[in-house]
Amino acid sequence: MGTFCTVVKFENPQELKRLCHWGLIIALGVIAICSTMAMIDSVLWYWPLHTTGGSVNFIMLINWTVMILYNYFNAMFVGPGFVPLGWKPKNSQDSVYLQYCKVCQAYKAPRSHHCRKCNRCVMKMDHHCPWINNCCGDQNHASFTLFLLLAPLGCIHAAFIFVMTMYTQLYNRLSFGWNTVKIDMSAARRDPLPIIPFGLAAFAATLFALGLALGTTIAVGMLFFIQMKIILRNKTSIESWIEEKAKDRIQYYQLDDDFVFPYDMGSRWKNFKQVFTWSGVPEGDGLDWPVREDCHQYSLTIEQVKKKADKRVRSVRYKVIEDYSGTCCPLNRGIKTFFTSPRTEEPRIRLQKGEFILATRGVRYWLYGGKILDDSVLEGVSRIRGWFPRNCVEKCPCDAETDQAPEGEKKNR
Predict the structure, then answer these.
(1) Where do the coiled-coil regions begin and end (predicted)?
(2) Are 142 and 227 in contact (CB under 8 A)?
(3) Does the pLDDT value for residue 410 go beyond 80?
(4) Taking residues 294-321, what's their average pLDDT?
(5) Taking the CB of residue 300, how many other CB atoms lie within 10 A of it?
(6) pTM of the predicted model, to two decimals?
(7) With CB atoms counted within 10 Å of each terminal CB, which end of the chain scores lower, N or C?
(8) Percentage, residues of the chain above pLDDT 90
């Protein structure tokens, strides 16, 4: 707890604004409902506090809540760690292997990526999580993963309390047609009866909390297994995607090459220790990373530079034929476009007829790309990128520039 208090300082009012977000409100609401109902059900209707088992059960419920909230707020306020503004590699010649961030006015350190939500380059960025209203990265990856582990475990305990409470309270009141089944529930019965009867409101609240607990167990549990899968390979979600695109690029251009992920230490235990430490603080400064013996210090960043060049080659130019207001789910673009709006926090961009867009990816009814701006307009302005409906644009004839392969690579015809 001391580590959290020493790191989290509310000197910046912007940090307090993190509390005003829909993801945070929903997450804390679920934790509050499940924890409160589990404690109330245990004390009033299931396991009395004056018994040894009831006391241990109540202490465990409090313990789950404290640990969950500690790791949750740790992940949110400690944050992922940001690349210092104006950062440059120690050896200036290494800058050719790195991408330059115009927003942060700095080079992107190995394993770092720029987050549009945080408006900074994040160290070892995994993803921007709306539930903590912050990025998951180098400094808070362990706390975030522990939260993903503890939340399902706490919900499983709470779900057990909810089920047993409803069963013990309704056993002598309702007939399920199980007259031939003999179950001894004498140990669970209250003597004397509880001061507050288990009424319809209590049943409805317990049933609702049970649904939240089971849903959280499944959803958050799946996220935990996904995170552990990439942690044991010493990767992030973004790096897994980069590796996949690297293999796709090699296959597309028929290259006699093989991409080897440089940060896999060759042992799951060694990879595990790259994230989890006894102190809770990851080793290193978040800028330099240990790599495999057969890899270059900038193997991943070199691949990113190649991927970016390939992305420009494969991008498609579109011309805007109808205005688009930039709304998330536009009603005037058709029913299919409305219901297939991308489920992501990535922005939508406003379009005006006659503008040109360079699209880099898309789904059936939506495209993602950036506006093509004049050099005079582009100076000092960050790129305008986001999603937009396909039926607002039309494909331009292929230019000679976009039909060429990157230098040194052969296109697969």
Answers:
(1) none
(2) no
(3) no
(4) 88
(5) 22
(6) 0.82
(7) C
(8) 54
At 334, the amino acid letter reads G
Both tokens assigned to 335: 């029913």
**Amino acid at residue number 171:** Y
Look up tokens 């990265």; give the residue.
Answer: 137
Any idea of the CA torsion for 72, 77, 79, 84, to the nearest 10 degrees? 180
Residue extents of the structural domains in the chain: 2-80+140-231, 315-403
Q: What is the set of active-site residues?
A: 129
Q: Where are the alpha helices (DSSP H) in 19-127?
A: 22-41, 52-73
Sign of CA dihedral 233, 235, 239, 240: positive
Q: In this structure, which amino acid lies at residue 110?
A: P
Tokens of 58: 């109540």
For residues 325 and 351, what is the distance between their CA atoms, to the nearest angstrom?
Answer: 7
Calpha distance 2→74 (Å, rounded): 11
Measured distance CA(271)–CA(224) in Å, rounded: 16
Inter-CA distances, 13 with 18, 21, 173, 411, Å: 9, 15, 55, 52
Does 262 have pLDDT greater than 60? yes
Q: What is residue 372's DSSP assignment?
A: -
From CA 407, how far away is CA 66, in angstroms rounded? Answer: 56
Q: Residue 408 — very low, low, confident or very high, per pLDDT cuts 50/70/90?
A: low
Instruction: Give the residue-averaged pLDDT of 100-112.
Output: 93
Amino acid at 43: V
Tell me: pLDDT of 88 over 90.
yes
At a CB cut-off of 8 Å and minimum separation 6, what does 81 contact?
122, 123, 124, 137, 138, 139, 140, 286
Separation between Cα atoms, residue 183 and residue 10, nearest integer Å: 56
Q: Which residue has the tokens 């230019």?
A: 399
pLDDT digits (tens, 9 = 90+) for 173-196: 544 444 544 444 444 455 566 677
Architecture of the structural domain at 315-403: Roll (2.30)
